[in-house]
Amino acid sequence: MLQIILDGEATSEQKEHFLKNHLEECMPCYKNYHLEVAIRQLLKTKCCKDAPQELVDDIKTKVINNLAS
Amino acid sequence: MELEENSPKQNYTEAEKQTIFHGEFMPHINSMYNFAYRLTLDADDAKDLLQDTYLKAYRFIESFQKGTNAKAWLFRILKNSFINDYRKKSKEPSKVDYQEVESYYNSEEVDRQITPDLRVEALKDMIGDEISNALNALDVDFRTVIILCDLEGFKYEEMAKILDIPIGTVRSRLHRARNLLKEKLSEYAKQMGYKTA
Question: Do A68 and B55 touch (CB under 8 A)?
Answer without folding.
Answer: yes
